[in-house]
Amino acid sequence: MKQSLPGICMTAIFLLIAVNRIKAQSNYDIYVFNVKTGTTKQLTKIPGAGEYNVTWSNNGKKIAHDVVGPIASPYVQSIFVTDVETGVSVPLAGAEGGNDAAWSPDGKVIAFDDYSEYPRNIYSVPASGGSRTLLRYNSHHASWNPQGTKIAFDDNYGYIGSKDVNTGQETFVTYYGDRPAWSPNGQYIAFDGWGWAGGGVWIVKIDTAGNPVAAPIQLTTSGYGPTWKNNSKELVFIDWPDGDPNLYSIPVTGGVAKKIAGRIGGFDKGDYDPTYSNDGQYIAWSSYTDPASLLNESSREAATTKLSLQSKSLLVQNYPNPFADETTISFTVAQPSHVTINIYSLTGQKINTLTDAEYKAGSYQLQWDGRTKQGQNLASGIYLCQLKTPDGMVVKKMLRIR
Length: 402
Description:
Layout: H1 5-23, E1 28-34, E2 39-42, E3 50-56, E4 62-68, E5 77-83, E6 89-96, E7 98-103, E8 109-114, E9 122-126, E10 133-136, E11 140-144, E12 150-154, E13 160-164, E14 170-174, E15 178-182, E16 188-192, E17 201-205, E18 217-218, E19 224-228, E20 234-239, E21 246-251, E22 258-261, E23 271-276, E24 282-288, H2 291-308, E25 314-315, E26 327-333, E27 337-345, E28 350-359, E29 362-368, E30 381-389, E31 392-400
Antiparallel strand pairs: 1-2, 1-24, 3-4, 4-5, 5-6, 7-8, 8-9, 9-10, 11-12, 12-13, 13-14, 15-16, 16-17, 17-18, 19-20, 20-21, 21-22, 23-24, 25-26, 26-29, 27-28, 27-30, 30-31
């Protein structure tokens, strides 16, 4: 299939975005914008890794996303699941090497394409992890219909179709498109028009079987990555009219796109991969975390530690977290006192005691190798680190990945 000039230009832009991400992959994290309050908070921060391509669980309590970096070894990247309340991220078993996760409407399975394969193929795994099932060969960017019975996909070459995951029946949607997104009411599929004149965000009206019933309509002349609001009346996508990619919205009926969220960064440090929560209250996306802001956070933490010396002891979050072989646990003692640091399982079973001794006021570090007091090497999972002193108790969650 011959690619048009706009398609070549958009492909070049996507390659540039990919290169920029690779160059700074460890600095991309997941942020969440609260539509009602207009506030933004950082949700993930996996040391030495980059996080992209968010999808929400049906109840809004978890997200699945790509994680790129050594933690995904031996793969370039894999799918992780993060608890929105605690911020704890764990790998999704069966989705190793995964990319572009898509949570099914009933919350039971997660579809993804395998980044480690060529050509890419779409699979699904149980949301709690397990064996993968092939959904569609030579395709990526899965998007579920509202009933969870079909996926929209593109075939790596700009052909967008839909497939019934139960019967295997496929329908044609459009050529020259990428990143399809099925509307919550099931009436439209939005997509990147990288091969169409002008590019930008497009929509095509479909019937219940997934067949197009009208010609595609162009909503914007630039931008990419559309995602639907829960009322199916609005799309959010990424655009960069001033050279800094941010989140923009546009009504499904067309009109002028408006900027709604994003962080200052520039094209090589922009905002990408937006997705609405099912209740329409939150938008999660991937954004560059500037190292300068990380330094500021460290400074604030140091200031907090200094203040804590005057009042109570402090347990700092272990680093790295998640960890594989060993992690460092830092703590500060406010005044000479007896300190106990215990490791527990989530069920409350005491696993190890790292220290049980008298300490002078000051800052200290201990290492834990993920073993019990008897030397047993523990499995992957979440463990609790408890600091006890006469002035109180502090608990931190730690994630081990083997």
